[in-house]
Structures are given as structure tokens and as C-alpha cells.
Amino acid sequence: MRRMPVDWTDDPTAFRSRDWTSLVMSDPDGTLFHTPRYLKLYWEEFGSGLPHVAFVEEGAETLSATAFEITDGVARFLGGSEITDYLGPVGPPHQRERAAKELMASLASRGDWDTADLRGLPLEGGWFGALVAGARGAALQVETGDDRVAPLLPLPISLQAYLAGLPRKLRHEIRRKRRRLLEALPSARFVEATAPTLVDDMAAFVQLHRSSMGRKGRFMYPGMELFFRRLADAFISDGTFRLVFLEADGTRIAGAVGFRDRRRFLLYNSAYDHARSALSPGIVLLTMLIEELIREDCEALDLLKGDEEYKHRLGATPRRIGRLLLRRR
Predict the structure, then answer these.
(1) Nearest 5°: CA angle at 232, between 212 and 320?
(2) How many Å apart are CA 316 and CA 174, to the nearest integer?
(3) What is the pLDDT of residues 195-251, one digit of tens each?
(4) 6-150+320-328 and 152-302, same CATH topology
(5) What are the φ/ψ torsions at residue 54 (nearest 5 degrees)?
(6) What pLDDT sits at residue 313?
(7) What are the residue ranges in the chain where pLDDT is below 70?
């Protein structure tokens, strides 16, 4: 079999000139986080040094694309595992093994890294196993581990069906929380940001975040706020970026940011008014969001990485996300 070349580029203009969105769309495990539009914004705000994008090619066909960053001798998937939940290669499933073999051989031949810490690979997807095999075939030392879990909630055809599918205790808890909040705040309603309201709505969301205690309250520092605002500006016009609120008496008491990604919804971040915590506004907002997504014929709510208790209280099933640690022998 003729060896496939791997074309590397560290030219930032490749995010536009070599757009690999079609490869994302061809991959069942591809997400918004793999797209050049998202990764360009990430690199511009948080990247360290030049991006390194590898295209595995066979003739005129590109089989996969993978964006890396290499800093102080450590190679990582571009995207930063703390704010980018899914990382790694994208390409059609039937080409994964071949593409992973060539990618790992080419990565091994580079002399600018000693350790590769590769995260954000769902274990139930095909890339994790393909990259492990490819790395071993390239004579790299391979250590596998976990990169937390990402709970997933399949969505049925109606809110009633969703509630009926929950364990009895969870179902009663969700109904009780919603009823209690609406009794205390009869004007409470689900609202969504639009392009004309986006500036003010983002300010409201940031304020909710910064009112939180501890690490969550510190998360939305000015640089992170700018990243969120740039994501909103870049993705709201086509309906990808979604910012929703639970509003009562004209005040936003809970908010959530997410992305509509084909027939999935990626819940990216959320915050609520802790002065109203006794009314569980965060959970109530998410149940209203689930109802809205069901109306939109969305197939699944992906709660992304993290094992927070509220995700289990919504009935989501954890999925393991894998990590590969590669070293030269």
C-alpha cells in the first residue's frame, strides 16, 4: 500500500485557507470544537506559539485533520482541555485507522516534542483506539487514562416522555423544583438572547457568573469574558450559539450558554443567582431548556466534561473521555 503523506502547516491563515469543516461533518464524533472557526478563536485568545495542523492526505483526498500546539516540549491537541471538551482528529470513520497510523508516525518523526498529552477523546468513539494502535506502531511509549466524563442525555419526543424515563425520585424532584419556583415567582419565563440583545445579555450572564463563590466566580475573568463574547459574535447569526435565561420580574436569575451542533446541543456553561438558590433556578432553567430542545427535534443534550451532581439529577449517563500520554522510547 502506498504511504500517505502528512502535510503539516504552522500558518495561522490555514484556519481559513484550508477549512476542514467538511471533515468535521463527515465524522460522527466531530463537533463544533473541532472546527477551524472555533479553534481559530481559541488560538487567538489562548494559544501559545504557532498552531500545528496535520492533514493526512491520499492523492487529492484529505483523510483527516488534527490541530496541535507544542509548548516547552509537550505536544497537545489545540483547544485547551479546560475549555474545549472534545479534541483530536476528524475525518470519515472508514479512514480512521489508516489516518491515525500515518498521523502518529509523522508526529513521532518530529523533533520538537518529548511528551504528548492528548486529551478530549471519547472512549466510545473510534479515534481513541485508532490513535493508540497508531502510536504503538510508531514505537512510542503509550499510557492511557481518563480525561473525566461527559454525561449525555438522549432526548425523547416529548417532555412527558423525558420525565417518564427518569427514576421516580428524580422525576418527582424535577417537578417539585419547577412547581416551587413558579409558585414563588409566577412571572418566571424562559427567554433567549438574539443578535440585537446580545451585548446586554452577555453582560447579564457574566454578572451571574461573577456573583458565584470560589472557583466558578473567578472563571469569568476579563480574558475569558472576551472569549465568550467572541464566540457569541461568531456563532449567533446561524443559530449555533445559544444564550438562554430564566427571567423573573425582569431580572435574569439563571443563564446557560450552549451550541446547537447538528442534532445535538452542547451545554457549555451555566450560572445562577445564588441569592435564589433555595428555588433551584439553575435546574429549573435546564428543564425548560430540555423542553425547548425537544420541541426543536434535538436528539441529545450533551452536558460535556465534568461530573457535577446536577448532571446526574437530570438523568444523564456518564461517558468516559480518554487521555493518551505518549513518550519516546
Answers:
(1) 65
(2) 14
(3) 999 999 999 999 999 988 778 788 999 999 999 999 999 999 999 999 999 999 999
(4) yes
(5) -110, 125
(6) 87
(7) 1-3
Please state the φ and ψ torsions of residue 276, each to the nearest 5 degrees: -110, 15
CA separation for the pair 286, 270 (Å, rounded): 9
Q: Name the residue ranges covered by the structural domains of the chain.
A: 6-150+320-328, 152-302
Give the SS3 label for residue 254: strand
Q: Which residues pair with 68 in a beta bridge?
A: 52, 77
Task: Collect all residues with Cβ–Cβ distance below 8 Å to 124 and sequence separation of at least 6.
Answer: 319, 320
- Stated pTM of the model: 0.94
Instruction: Note the CATH architecture for domain 152-302.
Output: 3-Layer(aba) Sandwich (3.40)
Q: Which three cell numbers stand for residue 173?
A: 424532584
Domain 6-150+320-328, second-level architecture:
3-Layer(aba) Sandwich (3.40)
Strands in 152-154's sheet, in edge-to-edge order, are: 152-154, 300-302, 264-272, 251-261, 241-248, 189-192
Residue burial 220-231, b: 16+ Cβ < 10 Å; e: rest: beeebbebbbeb
CA distance 172 to 181: 14
36 to each of 30, 39, 217, how far by Cα in Å? 12, 5, 30
* DSSP class per residue in 47-99: --S--EEEEEEETTEEEEEEEEEEETTEEEETT-TTT--S-S-B--GGGHHHH
Which residues have a Cβ under 8 Å from the Cβ of 248 and sit 6 or more positions away? 185, 187, 188, 189
